[in-house]
Amino acid sequence: MGILCADKHGVLGKFFNLFIVDILVSFIGHFHPLVVHFPIGILILAIVLECWNKWRHPSEARQSMTQLALAIGAIGSIGAVITGWFLANEGDYSDTLLFLHRWLGIGTAVLAVGAWYWYAHRKHALIMVAMTLTLFITLHLGSTMTHGSGYLFQRNTPIAAVAVNTDTLLKKDQTLVFLIHIAPILNQKCVGCHRTGKTKGKLNLESAESLLKGGKSGSAIVVKYPESSELYRRITADLQSEKHMPPKNKPQLDPKEVEIIGRWIEQGGMLGNE
Fold first, then answer.
1. What is the pLDDT of residues 123-132, one digit of tens each?
2. pLDDT value for 8
3. How far is 10 from 127, CA to CA, in rounded Å?
């Protein structure tokens, strides 16, 4: 500690300061999912109230509520922009989606401030229309980044449990094994974070080809050697380990699913018939 204090303006001091800043930025960024939903709800309330004012005889009370909602929503939007900017440093998101989501989010916050300011002067109509458009487009992009393309209309149908004798995997066409047994497991437990638009660790698990390609840590599977395969090591790591996948707060693979993936890799994975 004495060395650090003595070197507070030197290399160690700068490293320590950067380390603290990095932790602080990460900590603030993690509040984005919590912070972002509050201004969304408040701004939607302001939009509904304003529509009510336009369609029915304007009420002074409703107008005051609308202006208050815009003020609160604008402040909340600024908080969402700040936390979202910091959170973006940690996610493996599509550059295009991230760029659009970030700047449209900033645009929404600016328009919310403008709508609140100009509301008192009754010159807010066009600003509120623009804010509504950017708000819902930003919402759509955020949903796509988090849950994947087409999430709004996607049916989350549970995959029926299939009795599998892992010994019979030897006798089956490995392409069919992947489609029938492996792909459903990955789609249900892994693809949420490893897909087009959100490839954590640069790993995409949407197809056999992308699985074989691997990610930032190299190949996801080492044919015939489960223990040497990054995919298998991650799903069998200790639940408390940072390397364990899926993260402990997500649905986990059950022992049978882990066994199926292990046996599939052991028998050659997609290369089993070649």
1. 788 999 999 9
2. 46
3. 50
Which range of 90-94, 218-222, 245-249, 259-263 scores highest in mean pLDDT? It is 259-263
Query: CA 251: distance to chain centroid?
Result: 15
pLDDT tens readout for residues 134-178 = 999 999 988 887 776 666 665 554 444 444 455 555 455 666 677
Residues 6+ apart with CB under 8 A from 46: 66, 69, 70, 73, 115, 128
Q: Say which amino acid occupies 109.
A: A
Structure tokens at 60: 């002074």
Q: What is the pLDDT of residues 56-107, one digit of tens each?
A: 777 788 889 999 999 999 999 999 999 999 888 776 677 788 899 999 999 9
CB of 77 closer than 8 Å to CB of 108? yes
For residue 260, what are the CA distances in angstroms to 14, 32, 197, 238, 254?
49, 37, 28, 19, 10
* Dihedral angle, C-alpha 115, 145, 234, 226, nearest 10 °: 180
- Quick check: 239 and 229 in contact, CB under 8 A? no
Say how far apart CA 193 and CA 91 lie, in whole Å: 10
Distance CA 170, CA 22 (A): 49
